[in-house]
Write a structure and sequence with these properties.
2 copies of one chain form a homodimer. Chain A contains 10 helices and no strands. By secondary structure, chain A is mostly helical. The structure holds a DNA duplex (30 and 30 nucleotides).
DNA sequence: ACTTAAATTTGCCTAATGCGCAAAATTGCT
DNA sequence: AGCAATTTTGCGCATTAGGCAAATTTAAGT
């Protein structure tokens, strides 16, 4: 299934959404068309899935070790975000955003992927705070962060990606700005 | 086109997504199937569109009149929200959320409609503040509010809808809660 | 009212899609 | 190896997406 999604994403980047059909995806991944439809309802869904990465929950557990008892939810969240939205991930999202601009049918599936990020972060944060924090609080917090990240993800806010060597990167500056506003109120 | 969307939404409520085909939608709306595909890429998109309501920008102008110079963006936004998310609108969204639970293929199109609300509010707020406010600020603010509203919209948070007679309604209480958090920080 | 240009709708056609069903292949377990 | 559970596949068919050109409707000018 991962193979199918990857194949779809690659084909979309190489040929554009109209440049291939489901058979091509299945073929490249080494499966039959029927298997493709077992997992995806359309090309678009497969492409979007291919652009996203599954974050295993192991990272979450790694994080737990570094947490002191009184770390604020907002700080936990921002640590999470930084683990989740790696440079690689953002680049993939950008690729997808590009495809979206050309093919309107992609947009809903793009949104679905971003939404999944959102939901994952929310659930993880719930677990990490262990039910001690109001659920609405968490919903709002995560909603705010992802609402602010969306323009970054889809490229409508231009962000210089950090590479390992450069010390000043605007991506983290943007994150800091989000942090400030959410922390101190509007 | 509105007629097609409405027909699709009604059919989805009456028969469920699997209970009809595109021809039925076109037929009920009095158009041909070919015309349907001129406007929608699939049933789902039509249904989602039918569930949403176009807000003309007249309301925005109405609002402008009531605004004093120094009204805070967050207060403008909450007035906007209250105009946009009427009880009727929320009920339609709930209907759609219900359909979503049964038919996973609807979800991306549901998200698209909600996203549109989000974008509309953002653009309106930009106009109303007339470029005097940082764009990131607005993105975050609107993102926070809609992130917090999403669980309400899709019904995962149970909310008693206000009717005209009841004075205490939990929907507005929820809005107030969102307001507090965003205003005062996390 | 009449004419003409622009926009919308439609029919026709064909490649592509979605999915139920049952058979075949693969995997996992003992 | 033997057997159960899961995954993959082929077949078939109703449905769908969209290019193209004709037909119809709408809007505008005179």
């Amino acid at each position: 299934m991962r193979a199918l999604a990857n194949a779809a994403f690659e084909l979309a980047m190489e040929q554009g959404l109209d440049g291939f059909i489901v058979d091509d995806v299945a073929g490249r991944a080494g499966y039959s068309r029927r298997t493709f439809t077992n997992y995806f309802s359309c090309k678009e869904e497969a492409v979007a899935t291919g652009a996203s990465i599954v974050n295993d929950t192991i990272e979450m557990e790694q994080m737990l070790e570094n947490l002191s008892e009184d770390t604020l939810p907002i700080d936990i969240l921002f640590q999470l975000i930084k683990m989740q939205l790696t440079v690689d991930y953002l680049k993939r999202m950008r690729e997808m955003a590009l495809i979206c601009k050309k093919h309107l049918t992609m947009e809903p599936y793009f949104l679905k992927v971003v939404r999944q990020l959102h939901v994952d972060a929310q659930e993880t944060l719930m677990k990490l705070t262990n039910g001690k924090v109001d659920e609405v609080y968490i919903q709002l917090l995560v909603g705010g962060v992802y609402g602010g990240m969306l323009p970054v993800i889809d490229g409508s806010v231009h962000i210089q990606f950090p590479d390992q060597s450069s010390s000043n990167n605007t991506f983290h500056q943007h994150l800091d700005k989000i942090y400030e506003y959410l922390k101190n109120g509007f």
